[in-house]
Amino acid sequence: MKKLILGVLAFLVAVPAAAQTPPMRSIVNITGQLYRAQNNNHYTVFLVTPEGVIMSDPINRDFGRYLKAEIAQRFKVPVRYVLYTHRDWDHASGGVVFADTAEFVGHENMLVGLAAPRGNPPLTPDAAKLDANKNGVLERSEASGGLADQFALYDYNRNNIVNGAELARGPISDVYAPTITYRDRHTVTLGGKTVTMTYLGTAHSDDSSVLHFPAERAVFSADILQVRRLPGGLAPTTGSWIDALRTINALDFDHALTGHALAGTKTDSLMLQQYLEDISSGVAAGIGAGRSLAEIQKTLTLDAFKGFERWDTNREAHIAAVYATIKGTRRDAAPGTR
Ligand SMILES: [Zn+2]
């Protein structure tokens, strides 16, 4: 028992030390003047032109300050455009760092998602457990864990209360709103370079864009495009993911740049599309043959993708999601956040 207590104390002491570990950061040249920049498990890209930089997601304020300083020191030009892949807090936060020199471009649905949260729907079951005084909202003193860490990011109107609508909106209060929005496709031109943003539909979130750098033969997409790694939840439908990958793969490119983990080539992007198509047709065939979900999960092994990161953890959940979609019983159809 004493040993256990000491172990717990060591853990408590270790936490502040771990929190001070500097984030893993790097800037890697992809081709020409296109770079990929890392902040721990998140990545963004930027293109340097004689008139300034066109970058993608700012990730967060601290990383934004780092990137701004690195760009100023290495290239002596300001950031002129921030092009958002989507509104999720872990990619889109911190843009205010670049607001003195940049325009911000995002899909028009981003503005809808960032708007003031309306109404007061009930707290989610998990959040309701934290509601000690049972008044239907969370005071700051009631929040714990991740919700305590992100309280200010949820608290849209800064009244030290998070209600059901603020919770549903997500922890996006530090996302700097787009100053320019588009519907289907949008081209940014600067210093003789172009970047095109194309809407990806409803996969993952309803405001996703793929960035295409035609001269550099590269694309960048966060969360939807993955290289040798299975996606997170295939919400709202696997069909929406197949559509998004088809839109990406219709572009002419060599470099497949992602918001997480490995970057790769067009072959990798085509393989992800193949995975989604195989899982869709495999589950449909299993249902057609009268198999149960458990039987399909056992037999639809998708061996061609066995070496992919998260194959162990996500394959069965993806099969269950497709199964539920076909059976009309899917419950997690709201867009996910990772
Ligand atoms: Zn996301």
Structure description:
This protein has 338 residues and is of the alpha/beta class. It folds into three domains: 158 residues, Metallo-beta-lactamase, Chain A; 45 residues, no CATH class; 95 residues, no CATH class. The protein contains twelve helices and 15 strands. Helix 9 runs antiparallel to helix 10. The longest helix has 23 residues. Bound molecules: zinc ion (ZN). Zinc ion binds next to loops. The site of zinc ion has 8 residues, from loops.
Please give the structural blueprint.
Elements: H1 2-19, E1 25-31, E2 34-39, E3 42-49, E4 52-55, H2 61-75, E5 79-83, H3 89-92, E6 103-107, H4 108-114, H5 125-130, E7 138-139, H6 145-149, H7 151-154, E8 161-162, H8 164-169, E9 180-182, E10 185-190, E11 193-199, E12 209-213, E13 218-221, H9 238-249, E14 255-258, E15 264-265, H10 266-288, H11 293-299, H12 311-327
Helix pairs in contact: 9-10, 10-12, 11-12
The structure holds zinc ion (ZN).
Nutshell version of this structure?
This protein is of the alpha/beta class. It has helices at 2-19, 61-75, 89-92, 108-114, 125-130, 145-149, 151-154, 164-169, 238-249, 266-288, 293-299, 311-327; strands spanning 25-31, 34-39, 42-49, 52-55, 79-83, 103-107, 138-139, 161-162, 180-182, 185-190, 193-199, 209-213, 218-221, 255-258, 264-265.
The biggest sheet, with number of strands, parallel, antiparallel or mixed sense and barrel status, is:
7 strands, mixed
What are the secondary-structure elements, in order, as H or E? Answer: HEEEEHEHEHHEHHEHEEEEEHEEHHH
CATH superfamily of the largest domain: Ribonuclease Z/Hydroxyacylglutathione hydrolase-like
CATH class category of the largest domain: Alpha Beta
Basic shape: globular
